[in-house]
Design goal:
By secondary structure, the chain is of the alpha/beta class. The protein folds into three domains: 144 residues, Rossmann fold (3-Layer(aba) Sandwich), CATH 3.40.50.620; 178 residues, Argininosuccinate synthetase, chain A, domain 2 (Alpha-Beta Complex); 35 residues. 40% of the residues lie in helices and 19% in strands. The strands form three sheets. Strands 3-2-1-4-5 form a five-stranded parallel β-sheet, sandwiched between helices. A five-stranded antiparallel β-sheet has the order 10-9-8-13-14. It has a four-stranded antiparallel β-sheet with strand order 6-7-12-11, with no helix packed on it.
Length: 401
């Protein structure tokens, strides 16, 4: 790695990646290009430019990727109703392939021969970033400082920063209470005060949602419109993917929706405890499943549910660019052709409940399902249906006796 001439660093402007920037300059004596992605994390990103300039960086990329993020990554994932281990909406996992792809593109544009990320050697993100890098450029070289350097504590990081005149925010001079990753889909909080899974999460950890107990006493009703499996409108107003998710975040957050306290199985082998807030995503998942309940055939719906855990695990483990994920995506997208219509939801004190749904492509037939007299269904047909399905059970029962 000693012959590296230029590296593209995934740069947030925070303390850790600023230290990594300086460490790269010192350790590899290479030119550094910084890349900061706006994925809707809710932070002002221009200070990252100023800090990079202060550290001598000439090529600085700060890009608004919010629409691409939601359109090309979040929405395809939500067509699958993806939940890792049954509950996690994969907010961090789904952001990594986009960042990795764009880093590789910037490396090609600037003539860089390496990329660098700030993920630790204990977590999932190192895997997600690097699988994405290698999928997009099999020959790229990767620098992972947390697996190389000796700066293994908050104290050593701060000492290194002060030694090199890197500004240290006052709230970072002590032990940070927890670490946060955020984007337009969710916030993820881990570490420190959250490391004991036997201790309840302090209320101050939550950032995007009010406590369900403090949510309004009057429910909020909204109507979400779908076209081809993707949400396109709220209360009749057409919105871009990013603006739609942002609106749902506000509505869900105000009603205390989308909190998750999870002990999960990391890909690297250990369990971790995370606090996730996904207000808009939680509302969107309920709405999408409500739309599918009306428009998907039983066989297609049940097959999708069988495929979903595998699909979710692929995203969690960093295999977004794998052929098996793309194969599953093709099947999922095929199922969404008629997932079009509107869903009405009731948002109330932490819950998002479907209360109505309509579609021009509905498979629901009131004429068949009614309890009143009908002219389309002969109830006597059920007798033969039951007899045929019971045949093998009868044969098994006779053998047992």
């Amino acid at each position: 790695m000693s012959d590296i001439k230029k590296v593209v660093l995934a740069y947030s402007g925070g303390l850790d990646t600023s230290i990594i920037l300086k460490w790269l300059q010192e350790t590899y004596a290479c030119e550094v290009v910084t890349f900061t992605a706006d994925l809707g994390q809710g932070e002002e990103l221009e200070p990252a430019r100023a800090k990079a300039e202060m550290l001598g960086i000439k090529e600085i990329y700060i890009e608004d990727l919010r629409e691409e993020f939601v359109r090309d990554y979040v929405f395809p994932m939500f067509r699958a109703n993806a939940l890792y281990e049954g509950v996690y909406l994969l907010g961090t996992s789904i952001a990594r392939p986009l960042i990795a792809k764009r880093q590789i593109e910037i490396a090609a544009a600037t003539g860089a021969d390496a990329v660098c990320h700030g993920a630790t050697g204990k977590g999932n993100d190192q895997v997600r970033f690097e699988l994405g890098y290698y999928a997009c450029n099999p020959d790229i070289r990767v620098i992972a400082p947390w697996r190389e350097w000796a700066l293994n504590s908050r104290e050593t990081l701060i000492a290194y920063a002060e030694q090199h005149q890197i500004p240290v925010p006052k709230d970072k001079r002590g032990e940070a209470p927890f670490s946060v990753d955020a984007n337009l889909l969710h916030t993820s909080s881990e570490g420190k005060v959250l490391e004991d899974p036997g201790a309840p999460c302090p209320e101050f950890v939550y950032q995007r949602t009010v406590s369900p107990e403090d949510a309004p006493d009057t429910p909020t009703f909204i109507e979400i419109g779908f076209a081809g499996g993707d949400a396109v409108s709220i209360d009749g107003e057409n919105l871009s993917p990013a603006n739609l998710l942002a609106r749902l975040n506000t509505l869900g957050g105000e009603n205390g929706i989308g909190r998750l306290d999870l002990v999960e199985n990391r890909f690297v082998g250990m369990k971790s405890r995370g606090i996730y807030e996904t207000p808009g995503g939680t509302v969107l998942l309920a709405a999408h499943r409500g739309m599918e309940s009306l428009t998907l055939d039983r066989g297609a719906a049940h097959l999708k549910d069988e495929m979903m855990p595998r699909y979710a695990e692929l995203i969690y483990n960093g295999f977004w660019f794998s052929p098996e994920r793309e194969m599953l995506q093709a099947a999922i997208d095929e199922s969404q052709k008629f997932v079009t219509g509107t869903v009405t939801l009731k948002l109330y004190k932490g819950s998002a409940t479907v209360v109505a749904r309509t579609s021009d492509y509905s498979l629901y037939s009131e004429a068949h399902v009614t309890f009143e007299e009908d002219a389309v269904y002969d109830q006597q047909d059920a007798e033969g249906f039951i007899r045929l399905n019971a045949l093998r059970l009868k044969l098994l029962g006779r053998r047992k006796s």
